[in-house]
């Protein structure tokens, strides 16, 4: 236990120093300059050299010849983004949307709230829907973060550890119900603490196809699993808009305790640390360096196989490890480091681009030894869908060894 605490402390300090190693004065100067308040109830929009900002809705309005649209949009309290996307696994999604709004207060004191809804269907029998919410009360007094989904979710697994062989690929079919809700109260400026609840239920688990059928079947003796427990989150968040962060720092530490008293099959505990930092490279905030890292581990007890830390199953918002297949690496601990350069292409803010890279490692099972590191990277374009909520449509192509995938989503990856 002392060894684990020492490792966790070392990792946290390392991440913190890395993210603060860049010039802070430049970022602070960019954060406070070149912002203008427009007649909008959602957010402050950065000024772009007096060039009028446009989005996809502007082009649709012009094409459809709708009159007085700008005035009507200015007065709206809720900003919608509606677009076909892919799910976090990269599977095809039906039309998805996010809604951005402000619950009282003004742009100087209250952050933008966002709710995402993803109904989707994919090849191989995958279907379901996800709802993710990120809600701020006036003056940022409370922050409510939720994730709810129902899935029919056949997917491949390769077993445990950071070097699981490609030929261990095996199809597992199951249905999943997830209810995650966290409520955080502001204790000091930008610092929050609270409590929450976490439920992950997997039903009718079946090992379908692959050379490791018999070996993997031992992980599912009851064909069902339930993890139910209390969540204790702490967070520092100085970002203004989680849909498209352009500045600020976020560190989220979540401790989860699963117990049979609340219906869990096993008693076990986990820890998730997510750290993100954004560096504007110009006063106009068209060019941004975004950095992110997370550490996810089981602290004690025996977690069900499908609840163990796995790539692209992280309990947080956004896209992670783009270019690595979902579920490809699974173990009792994961480490991930990501960086992204975001830049403007057109002066009016309609088109932008990104270049990104990441490296991910799963520990050798039941240890904290990270011996194998898996790089991935790619490029993408951004199209401004809603200039008021600053919501982009992201289209990314990412690759890793033996795998390539396309990602289409609303907002930014992180």
If you had to describe this structure to a student in words, what would you say it looks like?
- The protein has helices at 2-19, 24-32, 56-64, 69-74, 213-217; strands at residues 35-36, 45-46, 78-86, 92-101, 113-121, 127-136, 142-152, 155-157, 170-188, 191-209, 225-237, 249-258, 268-280, 288-301, 333-344, 351-362, 374-386, 391-400, 403-410.
- With 414 residues, the chain is mostly beta strands.
- It has one domain (2-410): membrane protein fhac: a member of the omp85/tpsb transporter family (Porin, Beta Barrel), CATH 2.40.160.
- It has a 17-stranded antiparallel β-sheet that branches.
- The longest helix has 18 residues, at 2-19.
- It is globular and about 65 Å long.
- The two termini are 32 Å apart.
